[in-house]
Amino acid sequence: MNxxxxxxxxxxxxxxxxKATQSALLKEKLSAxxxxxxxxxFPNYASESSAVVKMYLNGDFGQxxxxxxxxxxxxxxxxxxxxxxxxxWKEFFSxxxxxxxxxxxxxxxxxxxxxxxxxxxxxxxxxxLSDLEYNKLELPKPDMVIFLDMPVENACQLMASRxxxxxxxxxxxxxxxxWEYLEQSYNNAVFVAKKYDWEIIHCAKYGKVRTIEExxxxxxxxxxxxx
Length: 227
Hints:
The protein contains 8 helices and 7 strands. By secondary structure, it is α/β, with parallel strands linked by helices.
């Protein structure tokens, strides 16, 4: 997919930062402008390819996310992603579409790299991850990554009102239920977003979450660069 004839825009952020909401709104606004737009979401919980991802997030390998190697956990998500892009959603990634992804390869950068504190080791892991997903698995690179910078305290307030995406219950997965891990992932996400020059949207100001429409409007302005 190196010579792709589509645009891939990724909406990334920590848990409960508004990725699904903003992805849906972006599709709605671009479609109203006459664009061919499709939405995808990772992990693809509707596919059998997400089976090991579900096991990991449900705590089958341990309740502490840090107990699972970032290399191993990244493989769980990368394999699901490759299967979804190349089989389930193959037609989406073609024909001049604009593909809006709620999470992508970038989520491994956000969540799994957060398990590594040493900067040199983190950099080594990120290089390995890039090679795995973009070269070995031949996944398309994003044209733009929108990072929803939602502070953990605000994200947790929003998380309290939403259901678990795996089983549609109020039981949080091992990432969502671990405050220390959420903080760890957020701090790493800010680091990664700056390192890779993602477009950063500050979702809260003065401790208060901005309105959905304010954030959506800023995203629409940002993506004009790649359309």
